[in-house]
Amino acid sequence: MGFYVNPSANSFADVLRNGKYVDKSELIAYMNSVLRTSDKLVASTRPRRFGKSFAAKMLAAYYSKGADSKALFENLKIAGMDGFEQHLNKYGVIFIDVASFISFADDIRDTLADIQSKVIRELMEEYPGCVRDKTKLLMEALMQVTAKTGNKFFVIIDEWNALFREVKDDEKLQESYMKFLRGMFKSPQTSEIFVGVYMTGILPIKKYGTQSALTDFWEFTMLNPGSLAPFIGFTEDEVKELCYTNHLDFEEVRRWYDGYRFDKIIKEEKPDGQGLERHNIVQHIYCPNSIMELVKNEEFGSYWTTTETYESLRDYIDLNYDGLRDALVDMLGGRRCRIDPQTFQNDMTSIKGRDDIFTLLVHLGYLAYDSGSEEVFIPNKEIRKEFVRALKESRRPELAKAVKIADELLAATLARDEKEVAKLIEAAHFAGTAPQNYNEEQALRYVVITAYLTSMDHYLRFEELASGRGYCDIFSFRGSAHRNRLC
C-alpha cells in the first residue's frame, strides 16, 4: 500500500465521515461496465469544485487492492448493483494527482520526471523484483510488473490538465507531457497493461487541429456529458433532498444555483406495445460546492469566488473580439448566444475569437450550454453576480459603463424619478444603437432590455405579453420563482 500505487481508502473514508456525502457511487457501475473493453479509457472533465477529486478518491477506494473498503460502500447504491464484489479491491491502482505533484516540485519543469520516478519507486516496493533498477519510464515499469506478475492496473489521473494551466506558454513541457500520456494510453501495450483508466480535470484533452491528442479516450465534458451527466454535479432530486433535510427553500435554491442543463434521450415502449419511442428529458445539474456551502452556512450568496476567482473571468472579458460586448450584454439581460464550440483547442492560449472564449467559459462553469440549440447563457444568479462584478472592474470601459447605467436606472425607476430614467435610457440608447437604427422599434426594445440587465436577479421578465387589445413588449414583476426556467 502506497500513496500512488495501491492506495488505501482513507481519503474516501474522510469524505464519508463528515456525514454530508451525496451518493455518487453509481459512477462505479458505469466504470465496471467498460472495464477491459475498448471503452475503458474515460476522461471526465468539469469545473473546479464540481466533485472531480471526490470521484477520483471513490474509484481509488473501490478498485485498489491496497484497500479493504467493503464497509465503506455497503450503504451506498453501488452495493446493490451487479458486479459490486467482483471488482471490489481487485486491481492494482495507480493514482496520480498532477496538481499535487506540481505543488511539491522545486521546479515545475521537473513535474513529469517527479511523477515517473515516485510512482516507479512505489512500484518497486509493491512488486519487489519486478522493476529493473535503471527504469525511468513509467510505462516501461508497468510493463515489467505485468510481465512478471500478470497483474493489470486501473489508472486514475486527477487534474490531468494542471500543467497546461500552470505553464501556459511552455510548449516544450506541454508536448513532453502529452508524449508521456500518449506513451501510456495510445500504444500497442495499453490493453495489455490497463483494465481501465479514469482521467479528470477542468479542460477536455488538448486538440491538435481538429483531433484530440488522445483519440482512444471517451470524453465526457460540459458540452457533452453523455451518460455521465448525473455525475457532473448534483442532480435536481439530490438538491431537493438536501433542501428537505436542511429546511431550505428549494425555489430560492433553484433561482440562485440552477441552470446547467443536459439533454438525455430515453427510450420507452409505445402505449400500443408496438416498438419503442424516444423522449428527450432535461437533466438539471447544480454546482456541488455552492450547494454544500449553502447547507453549511445557511445563507444564500455567491460561493463561486472561493473556486474560480472573478479576476480570471475579467481577463477573458477584456479580450477585445468582435461581438463580445454585445453578446455579454445580451446574456446579462437573460438572452442566449449561439456559438460554434468546435474551434476551441481545449487550452487557454489558442484563443482565436469570441466563440473560443465562450467555449472556455462553459468548461470553467461560467456559462451553460444548450446542445440542442448550440447556445450559451448565464446559468443562474450566483454566476450572474460574478459577471457583473467582473464587468464593473473590466478594463473595457463600455462594458463597465453598461453595468453602471443598469444599476442607476433600476434605482431611478424604483424611486419614480422620471427625469433620471429618461436621461439614463437616452444614454443606453446612444451607446447601444447604431445611428441608422436609432428610431426602430426593435432597437428601442433591445435598449430597454439591456438597460435593465441587472434587474434580472430581482424581477421576472416577460416579453410580448398579451395586454387586452395588443401586446406589452416587456413586462417585469418582482417574484421569488426561478428567473429563467428553461423547461
From TrEMBL:
Residues 12-208 form the AAA-ATPase-like domain. Pfam families: AAA-ATPase_like. SUPFAM superfamilies: P-loop containing nucleoside triphosphate hydrolases (SSF52540). It comes from the Bacteria. PANTHER family: AAA-ATPASE-LIKE DOMAIN-CONTAINING PROTEIN (PTHR34825:SF1), CONSERVED PROTEIN, WITH A WEAK D-GALACTARATE DEHYDRATASE/ALTRONATE HYDROLASE DOMAIN (PTHR34825). This is AAA-ATPase-like domain-containing protein. It comes from uncultured bacterium scaffold00090.
